[in-house]
From TrEMBL:
Alphabetical list of InterPro entries matching this protein: Amino_oxidase, FAD/NAD-bd_sf, Flavin_monoamine_oxidase
Domain Amine oxidase: 16-486
GO BP term, pick one: spermidine catabolic process
Localisation per UniProt entry: Cytoplasm
Pfam families in the cross-refs: Amino_oxidase
Location (main, coarse): cytoplasm
Organism expressing this protein natively: Oreochromis aureus (Israeli tilapia)
Superkingdom, natural source: Eukaryota
Higher taxonomy: Eukaryota, Metazoa, Chordata, Craniata, Vertebrata
Signal peptide: none
Protein name: Amine oxidase domain-containing protein
């Protein structure tokens, strides 16, 4: 079949990586391309929703590194979806690692405002230690067990010497602020704790230049624009795939048969699998027949996949400063530097210590986005929304010292409970190396058989060597696998 010029190509999953792959193949003239999507919508982890008058992002919100080298930036620019400041070349040139942090408001659990200036030593120490994690790119060179172990120990060791002119209470408060930032850092990796992140693996992620921006009209506009350029019958919705039979096990003419939940069987020359790593971890044993090779399975297990959720909260009037971009809550009673709570069901709300501030809309709504991750987020997902709202109300009242502040409404994401995702995005868990991401993207069969190569290909966020966990990473993997097929056929028709 590999000499056929118009092969049957099935893409599993209509998230941005599957859409990107389809786009590339259709533009290259391939006519037998279809996407099978489990749910009734396209976009996957790109999902825009409304909270009252406010556009909120249940999934991806930011273009990380909006500059020319970012394919997502270029697409969003071409579709006219970027905010004006993102088009500014100066904005695109900023090295994010040296960028001044967001304007913070700090509150303590005794209901006091803490001045931003008084918290600067904690912010400085945090960013210095975080930067220093990049010195451990060689995994064999360190006795630190994890990013968390390194960061917690360094902070605790530095406090006395660095802050020797401060009294014990102040030093303790600064360390508590350090814990707050460590908890927020967990959200960036969608991990339960930074103790679960590999210190060498942590540096595999590469950031691009440019100050992160949002798409003011909603991230889903990107999906709509991409979909409008594809044939309208390309996607079959509400069509979960049950099993990919590869290696011609069914004895038919095609090397692969895709078996759907509804019993339909689709013959294909190539299948591009874009299901999330969370889904793969849970269902790989039934999703592939014959099973995946051992090295691939090992990497699916080693690479981490965890939960990061958002809780959007709308207030009648703001209780933060007009120029505030981020709100940090500091628990004064947590003695040691830590990013985990001791009793998840009782104290899960203690993991939520950071709110980012939505730019106020013309309609005057005041919305915060609370960030929570790990087992605490997974527990939160089991609660009714009213109970989450009550916990948020109590939290805000405690930290502002104002017993009357009441949220108007809330909206939370529930990515762990989503049966097609089982979490938010991937991270380099302990023991994870570049080899694991390489194994993730390797097509099947592993050994190139001349007659039926490239039967099953793998795209999706968790298959990018350095932009994993992002939308631009996901797009690049879709293009990569489409190009793999295109160059395969190009080579086979060339003299
Ligand atoms: C809370 C949150 C915040 C984020 N924030 C950002 C951000 O600010 N910036 C950023 O760049 N990235 C962010 N991300 C990550 C980004 O959303 C993802 O990396 C990206 O959208 C993943 O695209 P994908 O195509 O790989 O996977 P997905 O979008 O998950 O697509 C996979 C598709 O496969 C489908 N599927 C699953 N199983 C089956 C099956 N058996 N049969 C058929 N279909 C199936 C799913 O329904 C889904 O539609 C965030 C993610 C989350 C969850
Ligand atoms: C971080 O690294 C720099 C440069 O090596 C070093 O001077 C500094 O002490 C380190 N900071 C911490 C907190 O370990
Ligand atoms: C790594 O090992 C080399 C050689 O042993 C040593 O010089 C260097 O300081 C080590 N780096 C770290 C971060 O431990
Ligand atoms: C407490 O919050 C309410 C509602 O936001 C506000 O009207 C009131 O002025 C606040 N009280 C104090 C003492 O700040």
């Amino acid at each position: 079949m590999s000499t056929s010029k118009d092969p049957e190509i099935v893409i599993i999953g209509c998230g941005v990586s599957g859409i990107a792959a389809a786009h590339r193949l259709v533009k290259a003239g391939y006519r037998h391309v279809r996407i099978l999507e489990a749910t009734g919508r396209s976009g996957g982890r790109i999902k825009t929703a409304a909270l009252g008058n406010t556009i909120t992002e249940i999934g991806a919100a930011y273009i990380h590194g909006p500059s020319e080298k970012n394919p997502l930036f270029c697409l969003a620019r071409d579709y006219g979806l970027l905010p004006p400041e993102a088009l500014n070349p100066e904005n695109q040139a900023v090295d994010v690692d040296e960028d001044p942090p967001l304007v913070p408001n700090w509150f303590s659990s005794s209901g006091q405002r803490l001045s931003a200036e008084s918290m600067e030593p904690a912010e400085e120490l945090f960013s210095e230690i975080l930067d220093n994690t990049s010195k451990f790119q060689n995994p064999k060179n360190t006795s630190w067990k994890s990013v968390g172990h390194f960061m917690r120990t360094k902070a605790q060791n530095q406090a006395a010497g660095r802050w020797k002119d401060k009294d014990e209470t102040t030093r303790q408060l600064l360390l508590s602020a350090f814990s707050t930032m460590l908890k927020f850092e967990c959200c960036g990796s969608a991990t339960h704790s930074m103790d679960d992140i590999d210190l060498a693996g942590f540096s595999m992620f590469k950031s691009l230049r440019g100050v992160d921006c949002t798409l003011p009209r909603g991230f889903e506009r990107l999906i709509e624009n991409l979909m409008s350029e594809l044939p309208s019958d390309l996607v079959t919705y509400n069509c979960p795939v049950r099993c990919v039979h590869w290696s011609n096990t069914e004895g038919g003419l095609s090397p692969v048969t895709v078996e759907c939940e509804n019993g339909e069987r689709i013959a294909a020359d190539h299948v591009i699998v874009t299901v999330p790593l969370g889904y793969l971890k849970k269902h790989h044993s039934t999703l592939f027949h014959p099973p995946l090779p051992a090295h691939k399975l090992k990497s699916i297990e080693t690479l981490g996949f965890g939960t990061c959720d958002k809780i959007f909260v709308e207030f009648e009037s703001p209780w933060w400063d007009a120029d505030c971009e981020i709100i940090y809550l500091v628990w004064e009673d947590e003695e040691t530097v830590s990013d985990q709570v001791s009793d998840v069901s009782k104290s899960w709300i203690r993991k939520l210590v950071t709110f980012t501030v939505h730019k106020p809309s013309e309609k005057g709504s005041h919305v915060l986005c609370g960030w929570i991750c790990g087992h605490e987020a997974e527990y939160m997902e089991t609660l009714p929304e009213e109970e989450v709202r009550e916990s948020i109300t109590k939290l805000v009242r405690t930290f502002t010292g104002n017993g009357t502040i009441t949220p108007k409404r809330i909206l939370c994401s529930r990515w762990f409970t989503d049966p097609w995702t089982y979490g938010s995005y991937c991270h380099p868990a302990i023991g994870c190396t570049a080899k694991d991401l390489k194994n993730m993207m390797e097509p099947l069969p592993s050994q190139e058989t001349l007659s039926q190569p490239l039967q099953v290909l793998f795209a999706g966020e968790a298959t990018h060597p350095c932009f994993y966990s992002t939308v631009h990473g996901a797009i690049l993997t879709g293009w990569r696998e489409a190009d793999r097929l295109i160059s395969h056929y190009w080579a086979s028709v060339s003299p």
